[in-house]
């Protein structure tokens, strides 16, 4: 019995069996078998039929929801198993196609580095055709409009939809798309993907399909978020492992750079003590010990500078100075080393003063580091040219060598800290990879820039520093730097010096070095011993270590100034010796009552000159 006949039978007799057709809101049809009996009241006939239909609809909805929940639970299980992102996205497409009764489902994700363009990432369809390479641009096409608005959209006739441009129609034709629906995949409150379902027939999608697709889009968003977190976790782990390797390599390099000079120093000292060397060998031994001692001091200074850079504590003086004199002095200080290495070192400086505002010591450090770097990588027979020239609104310093050059892949990182072009145990050159990093920071603190260039391995390197110059003419406020020269003769005849140092070897070095220059030396190993000397003997100059046990150099100079005020004595010049060589340490020492700050290791000639200047300079 068909639907119409069954309905007439039901109205006439109050009972009927048959099949009737239900039309869904989306246009689909379903045929339902029924058996209905009406009670004696004719008005109940229609209500009974409605009850039967509602029950069947409820059962269908329950089965649909159970299927949906089962699929989403399976997706969740897969995500918890940390499968590959593409596997999860493909599973989302499969679920979308099945639950929405679609012919195909597709997921698009942002193009790397371009959040305004998306590309198709995964597709599941009855007719598996290659995924088109057509990008989805924000505001163009159905997907582009979903990107722009963040709202789900659908089209029942994609091929003729006037809102879709011709190029996107072409993609739809290639895939055979007729009806389509797109929902946004939201990650952290932004559209970070698109989920499509499509039919090759004009079979439109319903509100129920959209609700299902939104739930699946949430699952895709969760998977994308987890994948990114995992990628960041893996990247952080890789960076941590790389940092650990870098630390281990650095410590191994540091150990090598410290122990190698110590080996030659200790060896030559023992041979000197054994009196096994002729005069020429003795001179070479002493030169080697001095050179390696300076290398050790330079290495320690570089480490301290880097620590200050990292802590943001490195500072530069702001004074007008002649940068030409600074560059000339730096070149002169390394000319002997260049001659020993068989490298020709030439400098071209402009006539007259070239004034900049900056720190003479730090700028000399910049030039010296660049020259030391060039000497390290320039073999015998090579050449280093230093050119200082005036440039537009500034001054340009160029250090050019004919050495081993810089590999192209290393060039962008040449100013990084701890960078070693060759960090292996078989590398041919020493160093910690700190000099150029320090140079860049010091140049930037002076408002300048530095660049590196090289035509490749074996073709030399060029470093260019630019600094702003002083606009107004005038004499520099600071004199050019001069290297301390040996204080010959009896520079300190009759000068009574109290040297306070808890380290016995250092104390003896100070005593011999100053006594050789005519000073009368009194030594003390502690603050208490020094104060006892100051109570009973006249002293012209105080030299004191800062870091001492129990009471330090600050306590000593404070007690000295109190004693002078109490007895109405003149202020004795006080010189601080310390391994704490930072600018903050210097400022604290001067504020405490010292007149001069000398960093360890101590050069005897420099110490003698410092004592002489302390006696003649105003406090």
Instruction: Note the total helix count.
Output: 15
Strand order of the largest sheet: 5-4-3-8-7-6
Report the principal-axis shape.
elongated
Label the structural class: alpha/beta
What fraction of the residues are assigned to beta strands by DSSP? Answer: 15-25%
Number of strands: 20
Question: What's the alpha carbon Rg, rounded to whole Å?
Answer: 43 Å
Major pleated sheet: 6 strands, antiparallel
Low-pLDDT regions: 38-45, 422-430, 478-489
Q: How far is it from the N-terminal to the C-terminal residue, by CA?
A: 122 Å
Q: Overall mean pLDDT score?
A: 79
Query: Which percent range fits the helix content?
Result: 40-55%
What is the oligomeric state here?
Answer: single chain
Notes on the protein architecture:
The chain is of the alpha/beta class. It has helices at 3-13, 44-80, 85-99, 141-149, 166-175, 207-273, 279-311, 323-340, 360-376, 435-445, 504-515, 527-536, 553-567, 583-592, 604-616; strands at residues 15-23, 29-37, 104-111, 114-125, 136-137, 153-155, 179-187, 190-199, 319-322, 344-348, 355-358, 383-391, 394-401, 449-453, 461-467, 496-500, 520-524, 541-545, 574-578, 596-599. The strands form five sheets. It has a six-stranded antiparallel beta sheet with strand order 5-4-3-8-7-6. A five-stranded mixed beta sheet has the order 10-12-13-15-14, with helices on one face. A five-stranded parallel beta sheet has the order 17-16-18-19-20, with helices on both faces. A hairpin with a 2-residue loop joins β3 (104-111) and β4. α6 runs antiparallel to α7 (279-311) and α8 (323-340) packs parallel to α9 (360-376). The chain is elongated. Mean pLDDT is 79; it is low at 38-45, 422-430 and 478-489.
């Amino acid at each position: 019995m068909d639907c119409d006949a069954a309905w007439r039978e039901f109205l006439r007799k109050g009972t009927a069996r048959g099949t009737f057709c239900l039309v869904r809101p989306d246009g689909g049809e379903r045929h339902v078998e029924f058996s209905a009996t009406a009670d004696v009241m004719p008005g109940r006939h229609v209500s009974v039929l409605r009850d039967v239909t509602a029950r069947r609809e409820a059962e269908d909805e329950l089965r649909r929801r159970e299927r949906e929940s089962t699929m989403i639970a399976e997706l969740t299980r897969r995500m918890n198993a940390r499968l590959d992102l593409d596997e999860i996205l493909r599973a989302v497409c499969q679920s979308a196609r099945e639950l929405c009764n679609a012919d195909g489902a597709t997921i698009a994700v942002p193009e790397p580095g371009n959040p305004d363009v998306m590309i198709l990432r995964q597709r599941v369809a009855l007719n598996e055709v290659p995924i088109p390479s057509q990008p989805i641009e924000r505001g163009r096409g159905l997907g582009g409009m979903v990107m722009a608005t963040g709202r789900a959209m659908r089209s029942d006739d994609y091929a003729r939809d006037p809102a879709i441009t011709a190029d996107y129609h072409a993609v739809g034709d290639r895939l055979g798309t007729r009806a389509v629906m797109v929902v946004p995949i939201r990650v952290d409150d932004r559209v970070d993907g698109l989920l499509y379902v499509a039919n090759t027939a004009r079979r439109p999608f319903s509100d129920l399909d959209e609700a299902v697709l939104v739930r699946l889009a949430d699952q895709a968003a969760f998977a994308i978020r987890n994948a990114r977190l995992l990628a960041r976790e893996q990247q952080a782990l890789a960076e941590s492992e790389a940092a650990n390797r870098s630390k281990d390599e650095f410590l191994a390099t540091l150990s090598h750079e410290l122990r190698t000079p110590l080996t030659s120093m200790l060896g030559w000292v023992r041979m000197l003590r054994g009196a096994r060397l002729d005069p020429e060998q003795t001179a070479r031994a002493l030169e080697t010990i001095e050179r390696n001692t300076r290398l050790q001091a330079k290495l320690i200074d570089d480490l301290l500078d880097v620590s200050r850079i990292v802590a943001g504590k490195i500072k530069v003086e702001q004074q007008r100075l002649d940068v030409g004199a600074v560059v000339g002095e730096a070149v002169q200080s390394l000319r002997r080393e260049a001659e020993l290495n068989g490298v020709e070192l030439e400098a071209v400086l402009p006539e007259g003063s070239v004034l900049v505002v900056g720190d003479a010591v730090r700028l000399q450090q910049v030039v010296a580091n660049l020259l030391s770097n060039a000497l390290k990588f320039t073999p015998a027979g090579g050449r280093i040219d230093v050119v200082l020239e005036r440039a537009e609104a500034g001054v340009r310093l160029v250090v050019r060598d004919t050495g081993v050059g810089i590999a192209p892949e290393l060039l962008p990182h040449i100013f990084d800290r701890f960078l070693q072009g060759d960090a292996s145990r078989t590398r041919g050159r020493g160093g910690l990879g700190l000099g150029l990093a320090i140079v860049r920071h010091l140049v930037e603190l002076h408002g300048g820039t530095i660049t590196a260039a090289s035509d490749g391995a074996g073709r030399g390197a060029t470093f260019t520093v630019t600094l702003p110059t002083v606009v107004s003419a005038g004499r520099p406020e600071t004199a050019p730097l001069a290297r301390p020269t040996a204080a010959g003769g009896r520079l300190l005849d009759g000068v009574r010096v109290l040297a306070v140092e808890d380290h016995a070897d250092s104390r003896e070095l100070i005593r011999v070095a100053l006594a050789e220059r005519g000073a009368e030396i009194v030594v003390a190993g502690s603050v208490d011993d020094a104060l006892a000397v100051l109570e009973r003997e006249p002293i012209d100059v105080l030299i004191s270590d800062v870091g001492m046990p129990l009471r330090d150099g600050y306590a000593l100079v404070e007690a000295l100034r109190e004693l002078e005020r109490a007895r109405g004595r003149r202020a004795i010049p006080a010189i601080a010796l310390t391994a704490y060589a930072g600018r903050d340490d210097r400022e604290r020492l001067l504020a405490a009552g010292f007149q001069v700050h000398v960093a360890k290791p101590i050069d005897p000639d420099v110490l003698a000159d410092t004592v002489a200047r302390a006696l003649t300079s105003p406090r």
